[in-house]
Specification:
Helices cover about 0% and strands about 45% of the residues. It has one helix at about 235-240; strands at about 15-20, 40, 50, 60, 65-70, 75-80, 100, 105-115, 120-130, 135-140, 140-150, 170, 175-195, 195-200, 205-210, 215-220, 225-235. An 8-stranded antiparallel beta barrel has the order 8-9-10-11-17-16-15-13. Residues about 10-35 have low confidence and may be disordered.
Length: about 250
């Protein structure tokens, strides 16, 4: 299959903040309640709002674009207002698409759009059929699947952001990675459901790592201690996607 158009157009600067009361797929601060129906109504427009993953704590209403937060106590929703703005891009991915990779099925639940000085990229929040959550990074036609290093809620010790430099070696879980990118980015928008809360004014310092031909890692320094993810670079055919967007001249 032909590769899809690359996402990555420059965007006007806008900052949002992410609060992660219990960040699923990354780091859980405390155990979350198990009893959740996943269904409620938007307090802004009254439309039905449904969370597909019990770990998700925020969702953008698909009818009025209001960001809603689900409290720990249950399904009651709190309104944050319209704080998320996505820049239109040529990504073929979208909420509700499904696929299979590494022999396991997954569904796309949400998106975080991130910008730095040379463009933007997408981080898609995935729910896997085996119960795990993870992320699919998409930038300039590349696809990167990552999971929390050593599993959810387990700390991985890494150097401080200011101690790193491009080309430096970093050891994660006994494996050597090389730092290939070191930047400070801005989160600029989100859609669907996510395991964190979106607010104004968020900066994301990060380090991207490579290992061999397809090994990939990233260190998120927006939290203390930093959040560490490892995974692999994959191709578009590897994702076996269904329900994605098609474009003129490209059908996947």
């Amino acid at each position: 299959a032909e590769d899809p158009p690359a996402a990555g157009a420059p965007a006007p600067e806008r900052r949002i903040r992410l609060r992660r009361p219990a960040r699923a797929g990354r780091k859980a601060a405390r155990p979350r309640p198990q009893r959740r129906t996943g269904a409620a109504s938007c307090p802004s427009c009254g439309a039905p709002v449904k969370f597909r993953n019990r770990r998700s704590v925020a969702r953008v209403c698909e009818y009025c674009d209001t960001t809603l937060v689900r409290d720990d106590a249950g399904d009651a929703l709190r309104e944050l207002g319209k704080v998320s703005h996505l820049v239109a891009d040529a990504s073929p991915l979208r909420i509700g698409a499904t696929g299979t990779c590494f022999g396991v099925g997954f569904s796309v639940l949400g998106r975080l759009q991130i910008e730095h000085e040379t463009g933007l990229w997408n981080e898609w929040f995935l729910e896997w059929a085996d119960g795990h959550t993870g992320w699919l990074g998409e930038a300039l036609g590349q696809y990167l699947i990552t999971f929390p290093a050593r599993g959810e809620g387990i700390r991985t010790f890494v150097p401080l952001f200011d101690e790193l430099s491009v080309g430096q070696r970093v050891v994660i879980d006994g494996k050597r990675y090389t730092v290939t990118e070191l930047r400070k980015a801005l989160a600029t928008g989100t859609e669907g459901e996510t395991p964190f809360v979106v607010e104004e004014g968020y900066e994301l310092p990060y380090a991207d790592l490579r290992r061999g031909s397809d090994g990939f890692g990233t260190i998120d320094y927006s939290e203390d201690p930093p959040l560490v993810f490892t995974g692999r670079c994959v191709s578009w055919p590897d994702l076996n996607l269904r329900g994605y967007r098609s474009f003129d001249g490209w059908q996947g």
